[in-house]
C-alpha cells in the first residue's frame, strides 16, 4: 500500500512519527508539507496523489488553513481515494474530510499505537481505479509560481492560455482573490496576448460590482481600470469617503505602489457589462475632494463624486466605441480641447468645449452599450462631491470612426 501524507510545516515531527509507524507496518509513504519545495513540486504532488492507495491528512490548525494541504485533499476526494484523518490538535475539519475515519495517537505508547493504527488501516476500503477521464488538475495553490510565469519575457500562446485558466480558477478563493485580480491586471498589459485571451481578460476585468478586495465591505465597484470608493454593504450603497490605498496594497500585487483612481457614486447603479476591449494602459488618479451639487430648478441636492484623472490616455483601437468613450472621458478630465474635438462628431465639433467642458465637472466611465443603435456610453459626472449624476452619450460612426455626439 502506498500512502500519501499531507501535513503543515509545523507538524513535520508528527508526520515523521507517522511515517515511521507506517513503515513498520510495511507501507510505502510519501510526505508533503503543503508548500512549494521546487519548480516541479506541485506536479510531483499530483502524481503521488494519483498513485496512492490512501490519503492521510494530519489535521492541525495550520494544516486546515494551508492552501497546499486543502487543495491536495480536494484532489484526492475527486479521485475517490480512501481518506484517514490523523488528529493533531483541536480544529474544525474541512468539509471534504468530514465523516472520514480518524486516528488519534495522542497519549498512546508505541506498543499501543501500532496495533491501533493497523486496525484502522485494515478497516479502510480499497482504493478504486482512477476515474476516466481524470478530473482537471487543480491549479498551483500558491501564487509565486504563477507570478514568476507572468514575469517571463516570452510565453507560447498555449502557456498564456494555461496561465489565464489557472488565474481564473484561483479567483474562486476569497482569500487569494485580491492578489489574483492584481495579477490579471498585470497580465492584460502583456504585448503577446492572443486576441481571444485578451478579450477574455477584459470580460473578467470589465466594470462592475466585485467582492471587496480588502474584505472591508461586501462589494466594491471596479471601473474597469481601478477600484473605486463606491461600496455596497448590508443592503446599502454608499461612498466610503476615503482615498483608496496604493495599488500594491489594494490589489495584492507586489509591484511598486501607484496611485489608484478614486471614487464613484452613492446613487444606485445598474451594472451592465461593457463590450470586451483590449486595454493596454491604466488610469491613475490623485485624491478625490467632495462637496454637494445643487440640482438646477428644483433645489434637490445631488451629491456627486469627483474623479480627477491625472494622466491623459489617448490610445486604443480605431473603430472601437469603448476606446472612443475612454478618449472622450480623458479629454474632458484634463480639459484637452484638441483631443476632445478629435472624438466629437462633426455636428458638435465646433462647440465641443461649450457642450462638454463644464467648469469643475469630472467624468468616470461607468459602462458601454455597444448593442444599442447607435452605441452609447454612460459616465458618472462629478464636481468634487459624494454622489453621482449620470449622463449617457451616443457614439456615431463617421468616416470609419466612432465619434461622440451630444
Description:
The chain has helices spanning 12-24, 41-51, 67-78, 110-123, 144-150, 157-170, 177-187, 195-204, 247-251, 321-333, 337-342, 352-356, and strands at residues 2-6, 28-32, 54-59, 83-87, 102-103, 208-211, 219-222, 227-233, 236-239, 290-294, 301-305, 362-369, 376-382, 389-398, 401-404. With 406 residues, the chain is α/β, with parallel strands linked by helices. The protein has three domains: 2-123, Rossmann fold (3-Layer(aba) Sandwich); 143-205; 206-404, no CATH class. The strands form four sheets. Strands 2-1-3-4-5 form a five-stranded parallel beta sheet, with helices on both faces. It has a four-stranded antiparallel beta sheet with strand order 6-7-8-9, with no helix packed on it. Strands 12-13-14-15 form a four-stranded antiparallel beta sheet, with helices on one face. β12 (362-369) and β13 (376-382) form a beta hairpin. The protein starts with a strand and ends with a strand. 37% of the residues are buried.
Short account of what is shown:
By secondary structure, the chain is of the alpha/beta class. It contains twelve helices and 15 strands.
Amino acid at each position: 500500500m502506498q500512502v500519501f501524507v499531507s501535513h503543515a510545516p509545523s507538524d513535520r515531527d508528527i508526520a515523521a512519527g507517522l511515517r515511521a509507524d507506517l513503515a513498520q507496518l510495511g507501507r510505502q509513504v510519501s510526505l508533503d508539507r503543503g508548500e512549494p519545495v521546487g519548480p516541479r513540486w506541485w506536479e510531483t504532488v499530483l502524481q503521488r496523489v494519483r498513485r496512492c492507495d490512501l490519503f492521510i491528512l494530519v489535521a492541525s490548525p495550520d494544516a486546515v488553513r494551508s492552501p497546499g494541504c486543502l487543495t491536495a485533499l480536494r484532489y484526492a476526494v475527486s479521485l475517490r481515494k480512501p481518506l484517514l484523518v490523523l488528529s493533531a490538535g483541536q480544529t474544525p475539519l474541512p468539509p471534504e474530510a468530514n465523516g472520514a475515519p480518524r486516528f488519534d495517537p495522542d497519549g498512546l505508547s508505541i506498543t499501543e499505537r501500532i496495533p491501533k493504527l493497523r486496525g484502522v488501516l485494515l478497516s479502510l476500503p480499497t482504493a478504486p481505479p482512477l476515474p476516466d477521464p481524470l478530473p482537471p488538475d487543480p491549479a498551483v495553490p500558491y501564487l509565486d509560481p504563477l507570478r514568476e510565469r507572468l514575469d517571463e519575457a516570452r510565453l507560447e500562446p498555449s502557456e498564456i492560455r494555461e496561465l489565464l485558466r489557472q488565474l481564473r480558477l484561483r479567483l474562486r478563493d476569497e482569500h487569494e482573490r485580491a492578489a489574483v485580480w492584481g495579477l490579471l491586471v498585470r497580465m492584460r498589459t502583456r504585448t503577446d496576448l492572443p486576441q481571444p485571451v485578451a478579450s477574455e481578460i477584459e470580460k473578467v476585468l470589465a466594470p462592475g460590482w466585485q467582492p471587496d478586495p480588502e474584505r472591508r465591505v461586501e462589494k466594491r465597484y471596479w471601473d474597469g481600470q481601478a477600484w473605486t470608493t463606491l461600496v455596497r454593504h448590508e443592503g446599502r450603497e454608499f461612498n466610503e469617503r476615503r482615498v483608496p490605498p496604493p495599488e500594491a496594497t489594494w490589489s495584492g500585487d507586489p509591484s511598486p505602489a501607484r496611485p489608484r483612481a478614486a471614487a464613484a457614486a452613492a446613487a444606485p447603479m445598474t451594472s451592465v457589462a461593457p463590450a470586451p476591449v483590449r486595454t493596454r494602459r491604466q488610469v491613475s488618479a490623485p485624491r478625490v475632494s467632495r462637496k454637494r451639487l445643487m440640482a438646477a430648478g428644483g433645489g434637490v441636492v445631488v451629491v456627486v463624486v469627483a474623479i480627477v484623472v491625472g494622466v491623459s490616455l489617448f490610445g486604443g483601437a480605431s473603430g472601437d466605441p469603448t476606446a472612443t468613450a475612454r478618449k472622450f472621458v480623458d479629454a474632458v478630465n484634463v480639459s484637452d480641447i484638441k483631443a476632445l474635438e478629435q472624438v466629437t462628431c462633426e455636428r458638435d465639433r465646433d462647440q465641443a468645449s461649450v457642450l462638454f467642458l463644464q467648469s469643475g465637472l469630472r467624468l468616470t466611465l461607468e459602462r458601454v452599450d455597444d448593442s444599442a443603435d447607435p452605441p452609447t456610453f454612460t459616465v458618472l459626472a462629478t464636481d468634487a462631491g459624494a454622489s453621482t449624476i449620470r449622463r449617457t452619450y451616443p457614439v456615431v460612426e463617421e468616416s470609419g470612426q466612432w465619434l461622440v455626439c451630444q
